[in-house]
Each structure stands twice: as C-alpha cells, then as structure tokens.
Amino acid sequence: MPEPKPLTCKICQGNRFQLKYEATYVYSYILDGDAPGLNNTKELLPFMYDSREQQDSKQYLHCDTCGFDYPCYFTDWDQEMGFAALQKIIDHAQVPSSS
C-alpha cells in the first residue's frame, strides 16, 4: 500500500494539521439532602452529573501553520475516510481571498 501524501494547506502550503472537535454541554445535578446530584454523597464531584445535554459542537481540520480551520465532519469516520478525503475537504473549502 503506498504511503499517503501529507495534507497540504490551501492557504499557506503547510502540512501540519489537527482534527478538532469542540463541544458545549450543560451538566445537571438534582438537589438532594446530602450533596448536589443523586450520584454525589459527600461532595460535589463534577463528573458525577445526573444528566448531560449537548448544546453545540464544531468539527474541523486545523492547520497548525497558518491557523485556518477547514470545517469537516469526522464523527462517522470509517475505512473510506483517510488522507485523500481530508485533502478533498481542504481543496473544496472556501478560503479568504488574498488581496
């Protein structure tokens, strides 16, 4: 199998990238007699929440060289998704025009 080519940024020609997934959640703790949250008994432990609701999320390919973010969705990653698919995302992205 041939070695995949490195990704290339459309703006700066850099080849250092990170996939990033940002998410915002609201955590809820039911108030009871001993500590906030049914799962907490003596103190509030933030990871012992009673419910969690996702409010927002953002997925993108981030160029470490110039800082540009290429929107993409990689939560459904499968064997078909790879460097070629990521390069296609970069190649078809709308980027700011240089003046």
Short description:
The chain is mainly beta and 99 residues long. It has one helix and three strands, in the order E-E-E-H. It has one domain.
Helices and strands in order:
Blueprint: E1 17-28, E2 51-63, E3 69-71, H1 83-92
Can you describe this structure?
The chain has 99 residues and is mostly beta strands. It has one domain. Helices cover 10% and strands 28% of the residues. The protein is built from 1 helix and 3 strands. It has one helix at 83-92; strands at residues 17-28, 51-63, 69-71. A 3-stranded antiparallel sheet has the order 1-2-3, covered by helices on one side. A hairpin with a 5-residue loop joins strand 2 (51-63) and strand 3 (69-71). The longest helix has 10 residues, at 83-92. It is elongated, with a radius of gyration of 20 Å.
